[in-house]
Backbone:
């Protein structure tokens, strides 16, 4: 079974985090915050455990959480989602992605993703026996070229997977790009899978779910997760929303991946989704400031920095420091200077890996003093 970078061995996140722990490095590699989400939500989860929420949840998720997910889609995006049959709760966005791809992709079906692509897309397409086509996102703005996008579709295309806001580049697709994706998906009768785990992590740019565009809802599964928005990546509560015919197929597959997801966390995530608007705004503002701190530090260290519009991540080019291979550098950095980052090439097929050879992704969902210290250490590279 071949994935993006050879076999389905150890993921890059596992590899680099292991090195970071071993060498006590500042881990700007794997995308997880170093500060937990609000204590109030932890208390709700703890009450579930000390109470009676310790046995299997319903396969689709507890109804109060499905209602909270539907209400959140209505409150922020004006989408009408039926909690009874248009929502499935999953074990993180990771399971929702797997369920969506395994539900609809069979041997020889083609799936389009944007490259660099989140690693699990490539792995799941391989597991499903599908053919993975990619459309490049290039610096500086990491938007797809519309002609390249059109050329990627053919009569075997069954699905297009987008990630908006985009990990690892931090870009947010323009509405013209989203409209083009919808129009091409309609023309080729494809399913759209939209991974929006960073929906609330945007810096001065509004997030538009592709499902809100005319003609999109009927063919779109939208995926999100509590991990990023509420800083509980370890809870692994995610979800998919969309029309009943797509959600029920993902739900059917989910039965055989996990059957159901962590019961005690579900009321806590329901509470979190009902947070005041200010919670979401303040979190994004705070993260935006951290992004600035790290961007300035990386610039001062001599890298070319592509400032993100959203997500946890900044992409920087290490070529100006005299390094042409970010993968080699990422494997050496934790020991050499006590900082970890993720090379972009691991999110790419061979050609894309060449194009992104000197690019490195750094996570800024960490305390500002750590970001400053990491940048100081990185300045020793030059
Ligand atoms: N999609 C993207 C783009 C991600 O960056 C991540 C990792 N945070 C996931 C999916 C997986 O999310 P989860 O941890 O909820 O499974
Ligand atoms: N989504 C996180 C990232 O991109 C990692 C999650 C994982 O380790 N699979 O860093």
Residues:
């Amino acid at each position: 079974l071949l994935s993006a970078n050879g076999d389905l061995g150890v993921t890059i996140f596992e590899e680099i985090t292991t090195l970071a722990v071993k060498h006590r490095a500042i881990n700007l590699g794997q995308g997880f915050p170093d500060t937990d989400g609000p204590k109030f939500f932890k208390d709700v989860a703890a009450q579930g455990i000390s109470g009676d929420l310790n046995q299997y949840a319903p396969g689709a998720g507890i109804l109060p959480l499905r209602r909270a997910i539907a209400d959140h889609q209505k409150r922020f995006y004006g989408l009408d989602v039926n909690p009874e049959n248009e929502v499935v709760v999953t074990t993180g966005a990771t399971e929702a992605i797997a369920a969506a791809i395994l539900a609809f992709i069979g041997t020889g079906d083609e799936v389009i993703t944007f490259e660099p692509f989140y690693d699990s897309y490539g792995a799941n397409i391989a597991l499903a026996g599908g053919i993975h086509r990619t459309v490049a996102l290039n610096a500086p703005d990491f938007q797809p070229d519309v002609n390249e996008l059109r050329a990627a579709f053919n009569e075997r295309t069954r699905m297009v997977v987008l990630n908006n806001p985009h990990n690892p580049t931090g870009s947010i697709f323009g509405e013209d790009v989203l409209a083009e994706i919808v129009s091409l998906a309609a023309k080729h009768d494809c399913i759209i899978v939209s991974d929006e785990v960073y929906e609330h992590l945007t810096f001065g740019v509004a997030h538009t779910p592709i499902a809100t565009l005319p003609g999109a809802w009927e063919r779109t599964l939208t995926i999100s997760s509590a991990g990023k928005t509420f800083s509980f990546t370890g809870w692994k509560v995610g979800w998919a929303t969309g029309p009943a015919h797509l959600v029920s197929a993902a739900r059917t597959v989910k039965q055989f991946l996990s059957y159901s997801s962590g019961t005690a966390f579900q009321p806590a995530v329901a509470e979190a989704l009902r947070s005041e608007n200010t919670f979401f705004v303040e979190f994004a503002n705070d993260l935006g400031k951290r992004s600035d701190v790290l961007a300035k530090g990386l610039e001062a260290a001599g890298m070319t920095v592509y400032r993100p519009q959203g997500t946890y991540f900044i992409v920087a080019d290490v070529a100006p420091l005299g390094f042409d291979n970010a993968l080699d550098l990422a494997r050496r950095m934790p020991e050499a200077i006590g900082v970890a980052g993720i090379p972009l090439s691991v999110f790419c097929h061979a050609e894309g890996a060449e194009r992104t050879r000197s690019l490195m992704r750094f996570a800024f969902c960490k305390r500002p003093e750590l970001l400053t210290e990491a940048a100081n250490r990185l300045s020793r590279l030059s």
In short: The first helix runs from residue 12 to 22. The longest strand covers residues 157-163. The pocket of 4'-deoxy-4'-aminopyridoxal-5'-phosphate (ligand 1) is lined by residues 31, 92-94, 118, 163, 167, 195, 197, 225, 227, 233, 236, 238 (CB under 6 Å).
